[in-house]
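Training component of the fellowship. As part of building independent skills, the fellow (R.M.) carried out the full modelling exercise for a liganded target. The chosen ligand was zinc ion. The inputs are recorded below so that the supervisory panel can assess the work.
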Amino acid sequence: MATLPATSQSALTKYEPVIGLEVHVQLLTTTKIFCSCSTKFGAAPNTHVCPVCLGLPGALPVLNEKAVEFATQAAMALNCRINETSIFARKNYFYPDLPKGYQISQYDKPLAEHGYIEIAVAGGMKKIGITRLHLEEDAGKSLHEGFLDAGDKTAIDLNRTGTPLAEIVSEPDIRSPEEAYEYLTKLKEIILYTGVSDCNMEEGSLRCDANVSVRPRGQEKFGTKAEIKNVNSFRFIRDAIEYEIDRQIEAIEAGERIQQETRLYNAQEGRTYSMRSKEQAHDYRYFPEPDLPPLVVNAQWQEAIGKMLPELPEARRKRMIADYAITEYDAQVLTASKALADQFEEAAKAAKNPKRVANLVQGELMGRLKAAGLEIEQSPVSMKGMAMSADLVESGAISSKILKDLYDKAFAGREDFPTVYEREKPQQITDVGALEKIIDEIIAANPKQVEQYRAGKTTIIGFFVGQVMKASKGQAKPDLVNELLGKKLG
Ligand SMILES: [Zn+2]
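Fellow's submitted model of the complex:
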């Protein structure tokens, strides 16, 4: 994590940053919001277009029902209140990738309002308000490279024009770059769980603009804000906000006025640049879209959409803690993505002791996946294999050391656990005589621990088990070792 220079650390005792975020999420409909063109990413330029999304005169938009359902699901997951009636509006501006000369969006009557996201901050949880979530259409793309005369020309690809977006606007409740980062991480997690967007930042399915201002601590009135646009990773957004806070404090300290403007972040240089003075809402000449009737999502439809919502991360964590007797921390790690949580639950249900599965996933699986650069879905060890390995340790058939070796082999050969286990099935020492010999030696070599055990400190048996396992190179049968040790130590 980047840290602020010492000067701004002290400046932060004097000034308070105020941050609001606007996130655009592309909804995973197969067709566009107002026509039946495909939304598939990566097609040849200008092949997914029709009179409606090209904005040809006389073409009429027809609202995509699925887009409404997806946006409403997202709004519900973000604790928003759904407005039964919302109004589409024209946002007028000229830009080469916007052939109609206006964008159909929602203005004073959005689809949903008054939501929140809870984020973890030092000392507990904090609610970040969500002002609104509204539906709108995406614009096309200007291309500056990748075609023949790109040196002196810009090309336009209108495939993206009309792709449905949910715009999620936060309240200016965020007070630090870290809180902004947390908010975005949580937002993405929730949206991914709903499945209404893939939130893929490289493909532009999730985009974020940040409004940043600073004010003297104790002052109620907000300072003048700058909007930072088009930053393409959460880490860069955090860095950009940090830079911007610094820049504004320095300017104010030098007696300058902060301009209301749009700024772009340059990740290589780690700084923001002024792009243009920021438009005010009245610059867009919003008016109700005459070609679309008011959008009505009545109680009945809301109920039906509510039923489509899957279990969300917070609720899932609570249930998993109860169902599998795992810790809050386990639940936090295991629900980091829906895929991981799904896989864990599959294994946990199949195994005798779900808590052991939780430990194995965190202790043996995740690190190896990370080292191999694999996603959970690509794990060589299947969830069935995971459950099997947990049961083998649980029953004492294999030691945790042998389990580690088998996992190493599974990952090295990209094989599932049962395959490796069948082939390498470790020869365990189950010969009582041989084990007794090892145990006698260890008891003889550790008189102090024997004394402690006999004085009543029975937990020290763990030490002896460890010594026996070590001496047997992990091949002693653990439950047999326990039994024999108990007898020998009396
Ligand atoms: Zn179209």
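The panel noted the following from the submitted structure. The mean pLDDT is 89. Residues 32, 35, 37, 49-50, 52-53, 162 surround zinc ion (CB under 6 Å).
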